[in-house]
Amino acid sequence: MITRRTFITGLALGAAAIALTGCQIDTRTPIKVSQILEVARSGVPSPVPATVTGQFITPAWCQDEAVMAAQTVATPAVPVQVQSCAPGGPTGAIGTFQMGTSLVKTDGGQTDAVILANVLGTDNARFAVFPHGKHDGLLSVGLFLNIPQLQAAQQKLMAMPVYKRGKYDGNVTFSFTIDIINDTDKPAKFYLADVSAGGDLPSDEAILTIPPAGMDTVTLDAQTQAKLGAQGWVNFMSMMTK
């Protein structure tokens, strides 16, 4: 079973959604190969859970601020729940959240605004599968964020007295990990769009093969992180279906 770990870092799903006082936010999200294929076939959304951990100054700060953050950024379709606040980490405490989003199907659109409206509606974050657009036999998977909505939530948090007392300035270091799990009986192959393959191949040449019962991860590069922040979505991998 493949267990090599790399990280998607920068502005991403949990990182953008949970704006906390502290210096580090880490998100881990699994997506199954069977999910990608079934959503592409049926068009029925599939749940995608994300575990988010954030560094806090103390457990007490975590307990106060984590609940406020979860309530501020959550939507009916993207719930955010605080699971625990425990001592640890370089800043004194670690808060753990569970965030639920979904993988949906889209045909995209001609402009970024139309694409985001088709995928997100009023939600703040989703993954989506869609035709590659240039090559038959490829299903692309992308990450979509409602940047204005997330920025508004961050500004609301910054205005709260508890965040002001904690001297929260909105500057947080992010990391984002997605586990690609092959739960089918055939090898799964992916072109990695604008990401590195563990540093061994340029992003435009990277091909990732995951055997049955295998798992691997991918890493967005700096240019893709900037694109995500600018346009609100990126295509980070495309699965071969032929």
From TrEMBL:
Keyword Signal applies: yes
Signal peptide segment: 1-21
Keyword terms of this UniProt record: Signal
Source organism, top-level taxon: Bacteria
Protein name: Twin-arginine translocation signal domain-containing protein
